[in-house]
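User: Here's a structure from my thesis project, written as structure tokens. My advisor, Dr. K., wants to see whether a designed sequence matches the one we expressed. Can you design one independently, without my sequence as a hint?
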């Protein structure tokens, strides 16, 4: 019998992501089965279909990918799916709401490819989204003192509390709603990750160009205007005004490799759990050659 590699795409949004569908096939799935509006309340029968259908040896050919635009919903679904597993009635599962885990893993792997960041101050601007939360967490796990900003202090605080609860890391919430508060957040900073939405400039060039302590700038935004003024999308560790710079496409090429590799890995065994840390380990393993 020809056993196909089946990926169940459990999306928390009304329309399952086409981006995740393309990468599922490019990562090695033979067949994608997509579910919209998936929640902890309606996921049990889908998971039962995944865990009860194939024997021990073939179970690794079924896997689950959890996506969608809302990280909180994705995390709840990820937790709910794992609670349904028991004994060896389980399949490998990956969480990547809005590409947050794969993108954050790529950006932090690129930053750390330049050297140890232990003891450095890293600021994640607009860090309350899926990419920002996970990037802040990974930077903290690498030993940086991380400040995570939002336009509203309470949102920054909630994101930091979420990362503390899930990963045991301590991030400092700050409000950065305008140029002045952004400059305050950047005092004595060495690293900036701009994790805001497409087409919103968070950090103008004149603020960072002469900044006395900043060493590395990374911006995940790929839609002009970019999140960090004066960067180019294709920047991949090159020097601008004495600072190493990474743009959205420079980060994106590694993100795509990591995403595809994680999908491929899902089918290697039936008991793997891919959240940010496992995906980050993969990103570091894939390795990064930093070139402009
Ligand atoms: N390069 C790549 O390969 C790649 C891959 C995936 C995603 N991305 C990009 O990564 C970025 C982050 O994605 P995400 O899904 O984590 O972001 P997101 O959730 O859409 O946005 C992140 C945060 O930005 C803040 N924000 C929203 N509108 C704003 C505005 N007008 N001004 C300032 N801040 C604003 C919000 O925080 P507050 O409301 O708390 O202030 C929001 O939580 C996006 O630009 C996305 O396109 C890049």
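Assistant: Designed independently from the structure alone:
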């Amino acid at each position: 019998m020809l056993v196909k590699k089946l990926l169940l795409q459990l999306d928390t949004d009304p329309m399952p992501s086409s981006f995740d569908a393309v990468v599922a096939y490019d990562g090695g799935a033979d067949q994608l089965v997509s579910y919209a509006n998936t929640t902890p309340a309606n996921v049990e029968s889908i998971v039962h279909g995944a865990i009860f259908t194939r024997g021990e040896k073939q179970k690794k050919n079924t896997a689950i990918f959890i996506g969608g635009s809302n990280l909180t919903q994705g995390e709840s679904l990820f937790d709910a799916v794992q609670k349904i597993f028991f004994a060896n009635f389980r399949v490998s599962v990956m969480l990547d709401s809005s590409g947050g885990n794969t993108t954050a893993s790529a950006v932090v792997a690129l930053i750390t490819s330049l050297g140890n960041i232990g003891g450095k101050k890293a600021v994640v601007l607009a860090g309350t989204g899926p990419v920002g939360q996970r990037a802040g967490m990974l930077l903290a796990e690498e030993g940086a003192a991380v400040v995570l900003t939002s336009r509203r202090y309470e949102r920054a605080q909630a994101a930091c509390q979420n990362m503390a609860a899930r990963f045991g890391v301590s991030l400092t919430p700050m409000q950065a709603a305008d140029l002045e508060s952004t400059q305050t957040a950047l005092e004595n900073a060495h690293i900036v990750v701009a994790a805001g939405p497409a087409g919103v400039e968070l950090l103008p060039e004149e603020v960072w160009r002469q900044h006395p302590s900043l060493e590395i700038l990374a911006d995940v935004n790929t839609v002009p205007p970019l999140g960090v003024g004066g960067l180019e999308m294709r920047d991949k560790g090159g020097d601008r005004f004495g600072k190493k710079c990474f743009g959205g496409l420079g980060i994106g090429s590694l993100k795509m490799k990591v995403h595809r590799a994680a999908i491929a890995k899902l089918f290697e065994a039936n008991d793997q759990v891919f959240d940010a840390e496992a995906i980050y380990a993969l990103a570091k393993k894939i390795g990064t050659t930093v070139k402009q």
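When you compare it with your expressed construct, this may help: The two ends are 48 Å apart (CA to CA).
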